[in-house]
Request: fold
Amino acid sequence: MKIQNINLLFDSLIQDEKSDVQMLPITEGAMPLILAELKTNKKLPAHYHGEGAEVYQIISGEGIIEFGELKNGDVLWGNSLKIKEGDVFEVLPYVVHRLSNYGNEVLRMIFFAPASHMGDDRTFI
Reply:
């Protein structure tokens, strides 16, 4: 068994090749726990996943999460919610979502997601 401190792991994040997010899986398996950070004035572009839900917890900072539905190749945007430290939310399969950091500090979060979400099950709009 290995114990890690997430506050120290933020120094080891890896830049995602397809977005402005920096991430680091900190557990293994089919549903890893992933540490992520979105710097000020950066976005995670609109995308969706076909397998499994994602569950996020905001560690620090604030931002906006937007949810939409893909219809005939267009996104019909629905909810736009402010998120902040302590907030927890779930993103279901095939729900288009994007995340923005318009705050004054880095947006830090942890999330559980199927391992495929970091690979081939991530469709950007």
User: Anything to note?
Assistant: The chain has one domain: 19-124. The chain has a mean pLDDT of 95. The radius of gyration is 14 Å. Residues 19-124 form a domain with the Jelly Rolls fold (CATH 2.60.120.10).
